[in-house]
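Quick one before lunch.
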Amino acid sequence: MPLRGRFTPPGDKSVSHRLVLLALLAKGDMLVRGLSDCDDVASSLRCFRALGGKAAEEQDGIRITGLARAWPAMPGSGEIDLDCGNSGTTMRLLTGILAGAPGRYVLTGDAQLSRRPMERVAEPLRLMGARVSTVAGKPPVTIEGGTVSSVDYHLKDASAQVKGAVLMAGMSANDAGPTIVTERAATRAHTERLVDFFKGRVQVDGLRISVWPGTLELSERFLAPSDPSSAAFFLAGAAIIPDSRVTAENILLSPGRTGFLRVLDRMGANVSITLTSDTPEPVGEATVEFSGALKGVEIAPEEIPSMIDEVPVLALAATQAQGRTVFRKVDELRIKETDRLMSIRHQLGALGARIKVEGDDLVVEGPTSFIIPATLDSGSDHRLAMTLSMALQAAKAKIPITGSESISISYPGFHAQLESLCRG
Ligand code: S3P
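Model of the shikimate-3-phosphate complex:
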């Protein structure tokens, strides 16, 4: 069945995390409309409240009151436990923020998060003088907060989470700063854009971002843009399902997030974009219409960060394109909620896709006629589960997808939205 219509995805997850967590370093209060209702952002809110932050539901949004570093007194045990649930972004950004806070904090996560690497944030923070420890590189992360000093750090991985953690720690440096982070490839710029929007001192020179210590000031109101990474499932779905035409409204259109739209366009889908506002980041609508003429494309390593969460659904689109699609250097996918390279290969492979991992590259040969197995397994990876749902939609098949309850990690309303777009 084709996907047709206009829809508004939930609030952007990356921006929502930062609105909540940056409030720990900010004064004032702010009414946020459109904060993501997903489980991951609920984890950031839970930690924010456990640290003494106030976030109150109101009729037209959630009122967030800045903590302005009024860190809580330590309880009897002398430490504060913070449950980050499944959210890697919560854990990594919070580690940066708490590096400069007095007290002892233990950051834990669920079984999936407990397998993910945390040294990538611990290492630069130690260079700043922070006392951060992991258990063999993984959670729990223990922070014996105190003082940190500014650092000039070159990121080893193209990771917006690590960049954000170091910049947020730099905001509490006990010297005049700046803390400078140089990226290997441009990643989503939400931390620096929001620090600037909340009147922090930040400077961006190409891949080099500098931040100076200080307290932020929340804006009175903030309208969270919708999540392009959630929109991507339906937009990519429209590219492969005949007669489809889907418009995602009010989505974030920052270049660091829209690599998937550029790739769909290069593949030959009909893509159109309209910008409606630009502060603090570009927002607008994107439409994808089925063209019936997708072709394979080559995606360069430096493009990957701008579509890091969309590779699974783009790989699905590539199974319906004529010829070979190569995603170059996608090894970061090995350390997402699952080893996404393997999950993509096995699960799209189970649907008949000709797909392989060559070194750190993902290679898809299209087009594929789907074959339908008895079940699929998302490995409880939300982005895989939504990709597989879209594949079944394209294949006009209904089979169980194990672990699809994980979809609420980023998009609780996904199934309802799918039904509504199918009704047209
Ligand atoms: C995110 C950055 C990306 C992305 C994740 C959210 C963020 O992770 O995969 O879903 O909000 O900063 P990395 O920075 O580790 O690549």
